[in-house]
Each structure stands twice: as structure tokens, then as C-alpha cells.
């Protein structure tokens, strides 16, 4: 049972997932700080309040905090979109290179077989 657990825990996918979770948490802190300390104060200046997220409330409902959470989400979603787009572009280039190499080998073999057949 320990051997099975060890195989499961140290497979590439599990380790990659663990790294992704830790990186995601760290990235979330960066985005939250960006929104809280830079974007929201700028929005507050536009609307005339210093602390936009905390001062916008209606009957105890802090819709300013909700707006801040939406901005957090949009930034994180956009950053992930860019990351996935770049990663897929890199993966596609690697696959094209491998495909070209395989095609070259196959075409060379076909050429050699045709030469042998004609001689």
C-alpha cells in the first residue's frame, strides 16, 4: 500500500498540480494587493471616495467589496488566459517540430524504397 501511495504521490501530474496550487495562491496574493492598493484607490479617486470597496455599502451590504472581488476575478482570469495561450503556442511549436521530423524520416524511407525498387 505504501508503494502504491508513493507511486501516486510522485507521479508527474500530482507534483505539477501541487506546484500549480502553490503558485496560484501566491499569484492570488499579488492580484489582491494590486486590486486593493492600486486599482481600487484609483477608482475611489474617480468616484470621490478614498476607500472605494469599504465605503460603498447599502443597508450593511458592502457591494464595494463585491466589485473588488469581481475585479480580482477578471485580472486572474485574464492572466490565466494569457498563460494558457502562451503555453499552447509553445506546445504547438514543439509538436510541429516533432511532426516535421517524423515526416522527414518517413519520406526518406519511402524515397529509399522507391530507389531500391527501380534499380
TrEMBL record:
Record keyword Cytoplasm present: no
Xref: InterPro entries: MS_channel, MSC/AndL, MscL_channel
Organism of derivation: Staphylococcus hsinchuensis
Gene that specifies this protein: mscL
Name of one Pfam family that matches: MscL
Membrane topology of the entry: Multi-pass membrane protein
Protein name: Large-conductance mechanosensitive channel
Family from the record: Belongs to the MscL family.
Chain segments annotated as transmembrane: 34-53, 65-84
Main localization (coarse): membrane
Subunit description: Homopentamer.
Keywords: Cell membrane, Ion channel, Ion transport, Membrane, Transmembrane, Transmembrane helix, Transport
Annotated localization: Cell membrane; Membrane
Role this protein plays: Channel that opens in response to stretch forces in the membrane lipid bilayer. May participate in the regulation of osmotic pressure changes within the cell.
